């Protein structure tokens, strides 16, 4: 994946390869020691999208960054 600045990800929509709209990017988690990115934290549009992901204590979705396929106007994640 090409280098992308964190500020360019703010408020991007998260959409699955199957067309599912998950919500809007809220934050990204990382491992403090290595700086490795772990999860996208997403404000969900509705609860139906939570069947594919984990939820945080505040009802946000966690999507592993390994599922990211592309980042353009939206963040596309693999839902196959």
UniProtKB/TrEMBL annotation:
Superkingdom of the organism of origin: Archaea
Domain PRC-barrel: 1-79
InterPro entries: PRC-brl_dom, PRC_barrel-like_sf
Protein name: PRC-barrel domain-containing protein
Lineage per the UniProt record: Archaea, Methanobacteriati, Methanobacteriota, Stenosarchaea group, Halobacteria
